[in-house]
Amino acid sequence: MNVINYGQLLQLIWPEIILTVTALLVVAIDLLFFRNSRVRVRFLVAATIGSAGCVAAIIKLLLASAQGSLLDGILLSNPLTHLVQIALLVITSVTLFLSVDSTFTAHVSEFVLLLLLATTGMMFLVGSQDLLVIFISLELLSLSVYILAGFDKRSVRSSEAALKYFLFGGMSAAFMLFGFSLLYGFSNSTSLTRIASAIHGQPLNPILIIAIVTTVIGFGFKIAAAPFHFWAPDVYQGAPLPSTAFIASGSKVASFFIFFQVLVLGFAGAEGSASLLHFQSGWIPVLVVVAVISMLLGNVVAIVQTSLRRLLAYSAIAHAGYMLLAFVAHTQQSLASLLYYVATYALATLGVLGVLAVTEKQLGNDTIHDLAGLSRRAPFLSLCLAIFVLSLAGIPPLSGFFAKFLLFSALLAAGPGSKLLLWLVIFAIGMSAVSLFYYLRILKRVYVADPPAEAGEIESSLLLRVIVGLLAGGVVVLGCAPDLILTQILNAIHASGF
Fold first, then answer.
1. Tens-digit pLDDT profile for residues 155-181
2. Which residues contact 42 (CB under 8 A, 6 or more apart)?
3. Is 61 exposed, middle or buried (0-12, 13-18, 19+ CB in 10 A)?
4. 8 A C-beta contact, residue 141 and residue 254
């Protein structure tokens, strides 16, 4: 019989405790001392306290022991989980400061509370290899972001986005829970490693096939992969901009990481093959279909979008398709490429939304047409926007180019001579070429089109310019010197024995 070591439990969850205490502290300080202050002051104080909590949690993670596990992976502590959790905390801190100039709500402390609780859910999510904890963590994350999506009570679009997000999220959670229950019945355990032991060497049966499909449906919703993407365009367009930034970056990092672990560790032995000559049922054929549909639908539909937010949503669907290719390879190199890709994608997306926070506030809309002549009205923000957009398009020497290069290299290295993998890479490169059209359309409006005759200079706060500038610098530096984090990722993977 397993006995819980509460001292070890406390050591493993200290970062989450710090974040939860910080969230409660934000509410107390805001309501007790700053209730009558201006909204911007309240957001600045709340963001500062929240970011201080994130920094404290990062320090605790850096000082934590390298390895630790509780009850067959219910909670984990290793260099890889620490690295992902640090990335999530950095994203949360950036999102907090992006919200400082927001005016969509007067309930500042409640907004920051939900943001920090969602981050706590993500940290538990990436630090576990147990189906029960994974599901509970996903629900903590999901319930928080549902509310964040509808936090602008004055906007009908925000309410509609939250309702659609909640309804689709509820259905996806039902599919996922059904799949998890089948896995538990099949293996008599919720541990990913024990489930893999039960599956290994067994022929695929209908129960296991249904579990694979329902699990992919559940996680496909979380990562906004087609055809489970229906919530994404409305949420990206209707949610308050800081909420959109958090959903488009932090939740993607956590969801992709745990999805990879569930499939590669939990369904080990049930991979199958999508090759026409050696087809075998498993999760790889399912993901190949989802990846191809995501890349095709995301890039093609993005071409006709006039809203920059909706364009980013369909772009995210396409990028989800690229990232799913790392699952098909399921090697240490492909995991490293996935983490590098999703981290650099999060930086670029946060940057675009940071620029959009200024243009929306000044122009009152998020259409691409409204960006006409932005380079003459806000030169610095336009330069940063160009860096982010070109990175998303995969143009060298920016981080987006190296992310795709590393991903495609890992895919080809996983199966030398495999025609399927070669065709997947060729298709992905072709879809990347298609994406250039709508990305360059944005820059054409910014740099080529003339601004309206009565248009003046667009003003932005020093804080936001600093954040956007740092994000743009990060995209450039990580593209020119990818080893700065790639080496850390690979070392963490090896040290964790993944």
1. 899 999 999 999 999 999 999 999 999
2. 30, 34, 108, 109
3. buried
4. yes
